[in-house]
Amino acid sequence: MTMRLDAISTDVRFAARRLSRTPLFTLSVVTVMALGIGANAAVFTALDQTVIRPLPFRQPERLVMLWEDFSALGRPPKQRVSPATFLDWRAQSRSFDAMGAYGLDARTLTGGAAPREVNGARVTANLIPLVGVSPLLGRTFSADEESLANGPVVLGYGLWQGQYGGDPGIVGKTISMNGQPRPVIGVMPRGFDFPERADYWLPFGLSPQLLTRRNSHFLKVVGRLSADRTLEQAQADMTSIAAGLAREYPASNAQVGVGVVSLKDQMVGDTRTAFVILIAAAACVLLIACANVAHLLLARASTRRADVAVRVALGASPGRLVGEMLAESTLLAVLGAVSGLVVARWSLAALQQMVPSGLAGFVDLHLDMRVLAFAAVLAIGSSVLFGLAPAWRLSRLAPLGTRGAIGGGRLGTRNALVILEVAVSFVLVVGAGLLVRSLWHLRAVDPGFRPGGMLTANVSVPLPKYQDSDRRSRFYDAALARVRAIPGVSIAGATSDLPYTSRGNTMALQVEGQPVSVGVMQDAIFRLVSLDYLQTIGARLVQGRFLDDGDRADSMPVVIVNESLARQYWPAQSALGHRIDTGTGDGSPRWMTIVGVVGDVRERGLDLAMKPGVYVPYTQTAISFFQPSELAIRTTREPMTIAKEVQEAVWSVDRDQPLSNLRTMDDIVEAELASRTQVLRLLGTFAILAVVLAAFGVYAVLSLVVSQRTREIGLRLAVGARRADIVAGVLAQVGRLTAAALGVGVVAGIATTRLLSSLLYGVTPVDWRTFAAVALLLTLISLLAALIPTRRAASVDPIVALRANS
After folding, report:
1. Measured between alpha carbons, how far is 400 from 437 in angstroms, rounded to an integer?
2. Domain residues for 46?
3. What is the number of alpha carbons within 13 Å of residue 752 lying toward its C-beta?
4. Do residues 321 and 389 both lie within one domain?
5. Residues 421, 746: contact at Cβ < 8 Å?
6. Helical (H) or strand (E) element with 319
7. Residue 418 in domain
8. Are the C-beta atoms of 329 and 387 separated by less than 8 Å?
């Protein structure tokens, strides 16, 4: 064993000396390996810390989320839950140790230098204990506090530190939220942001009237499976409960099922697919990097053939030669891995943006021992992968003076490597091309409004300060009037939800004169709007009129509907003059007359199907759980330059009213495309790197071909061959390699691009136009890579070539 270790140590020292004598070669190999290993280490870090590791909760594998399933009604399966349905689930289910619910919430903090809006959640008393995290200070809610509308508050660690300076005596003190005093009873530990980056938690506090509603879907439900129940058994249990509710409440629950999914799967969502795609792409880049290093080592080996042949003649064993070569390749891989970790650390900022919002509070991407171990495995595997071929080639050399001791060697190995590189590059570029086409299709979709030149902001007024609908309307009227007076502002409006910011917020719908169909989902996207909102966003008027100053609290209730609603209920006639009810009154019907129809605005996002939608003037409703809290401001100035003036305009109406989330509408549109755009950027980077490396491989092989055939080329030219024929021969070599590579790439592409299905829009995973375009691109790149070797072959001087090889 000692002798073996000594031999390895000698091989490593010998390899280090050889590499130090060729710094350009060493730098080239280390750079290529750093890119390959660094890309894999970075993506593995994100995959490991986001997808693979369990959530930081007690027994996280038993935590699930429950959704109402409307798929039988042509709706997406995961829908938020109505309060009454949640209470029935909690009372009837036998598969859970506990079941809790929450609704997202926003509040205004006052008492500091300026009012501040914070985001949190209203939760059942058992929700925080359910996930198994104890408070850092104090306690969480008791069962008696769950129903309190003005109950105590539990602070998040970030809010405690940022707003209250980490005051250790904060528990027992009172803070002002929405103008109401609330006692602080606890502080949660650092990193606990469940659900969805909460700054605080309040008791559920739903009114008895709201708890009975089955057509208002705004709760998210979390459950902890009993120890003796599986996810499948819980699903069967909940399906049985849903069937019973459908029989008992056919008007609201007919054909409505239940979906039970693990909490981890819910929080990770499509990110798992994105990271799997990226880790596969990074592995492809590493494979191509290894192939390129093998090219370099094979070329280096060809310069050492005479030296190795002498050593073989003096008795060096093949095993000894292989050991020396593997020591050199391992040393190169280790240097590449160390440099790759630096590359990985630089790359984590881009990958952090891909962490799902629900996990963002728990995941801060960083390099750790698991990543170091992963990089070490990559280094060892890579060294074997790219070092074995040249080591094996040199170990088979005959002794000096015998046939084959010094010669050109066969090109089969290098040709195979080129075919591999181009084929893998084809798959990566096709994947990037499919995402480019998807984004192009999405950007070509008519959103139904004009996002350019618009600033948006959130102005959520606090309740009960603005519980009275008249007072609330007066505030928004005054704030919008002040905003419109800002120089450069052409028009401004307000809505309960801006386009793309909510995929839900629907209300039950009843059409006058048409019976309610049991088992048919009759609801509509509900937006509470100001009089000028639709004109502000640039919605297209199809029929009738927009809202105007005559649509006040004491006038006839009116509503604007979208084309989808008009087509669904009045396909053969005008919707104008008909009346609908969306439950915006006090429980009794509130019939609103349709006075206008606008083109469909893609409220829920670019890639979801259109739904019926209604736009109700905020001046004509008393409901408080919808507010016109989102401002839309169209300006002739750069939108963000008026942000401070907008803030001052709002403060001039109410000094305690915060303004938050200021961003342009263009930013909201880009956020809608962010998941695809981020994957495209990373996959595109890998694809470009792969193509560059593959082009280098083509160049290296053809350069070797030309150098080994210089005498043959000179002889052919001397006996009358045309230089065009020489060029054609070299290009034929390129054509054969590229054709073989593309054949392999097409087969691999058909098998692998289906991974991208969830990210594609308007294009299939096997899109032949994309395949053909990429094939043409790689063919041109291969020909370009062959340009220098081809020109070298065409410029061979027959006399010089024959003399040099005589």
Report:
1. 58
2. 1-62+275-409
3. 23
4. yes
5. no
6. helix 318-352
7. no
8. yes
Residue 525, class by beta-carbon neighbours within 10 Å (0-12 exposed, 13-18 middle, 19+ buried)? buried
Check residue 69 and report its DSSP letter: E
Q: Residue 192: which of 179, 201, 183 has the closest Cα? A: 201
Q: How many structural domains are present in the chain?
A: 4
Do residues 460 and 627 touch, judged by C-beta distance below 8 A?
A: yes
pLDDT tens-digit readout, 419-429: 888 888 899 99
Q: Do 236 and 176 belong together in one domain? A: yes
pLDDT > 50? residue 401: no
Quote the distance between the C-alpha of residue 729 and its chain's center: 47
Classify burial at 656, counting beta carbons within 10 Å of its beta carbon; exposed 0-12, middle 13-18, buried 19 or more: middle
Q: At what angle do helices 412-444 and 768-785 cross, to 10 degrees?
A: 130
Among 188, 221, 255, which residue terminates a domain? 255
In this structure, the answer to whether residues 596 and 503 fall within a common structural domain is yes
Tell me what pLDDT residue 198 has.
87
**Co-location of 485 and 550 in the same domain:** yes
Domain membership of residue 646 (yes or no) is yes
Structure confidence at residue 712 (pLDDT): 66
Same domain, 609 and 702: no
The answer to whether 658 and 114 have CB atoms below 8 angstroms apart is yes
Q: Are strands 180-187 and 153-155 parallel, antiparallel or unpaired?
A: parallel
pLDDT tens digits for 117-160?
Answer: 888 999 999 999 999 999 999 999 999 998 888 899 999 999 99
Instruction: Give the CA distances from residue 678 to residues 41, 283, 439, 672, 785, in Å, rounded to whole numbers and listed in that order.
Output: 18, 18, 11, 11, 30
Q: What is the dihedral of CA 293, 297, 302, 308, to 10 degrees?
A: -170
91 and 57 in a common domain: no
Would the pLDDT of 746 be above 90?
yes
- Give CA separation, 225 vs 100, 130, 238, 501, 609, in Å: 12, 10, 12, 32, 34
- How far is residue 601's CA from residue 447's CA, in Å, rounded to a whole number? 6
Residues 228 and 291 in one domain: no
With 70 as the cut, is the pLDDT of residue 3 above it? no
Q: Is the alpha carbon torsion for 563, 564, 567, 568 positive or negative?
A: negative
Does residue 584 share a domain with residue 543? yes
Q: Which residues pair with 102 in a beta bridge?
A: 123, 220
Q: At 198, give phi and psi (nearest 5°).
A: -80, 140
Packing angle between helix 271-303 and helix 318-352, nearest 10 degrees? 150
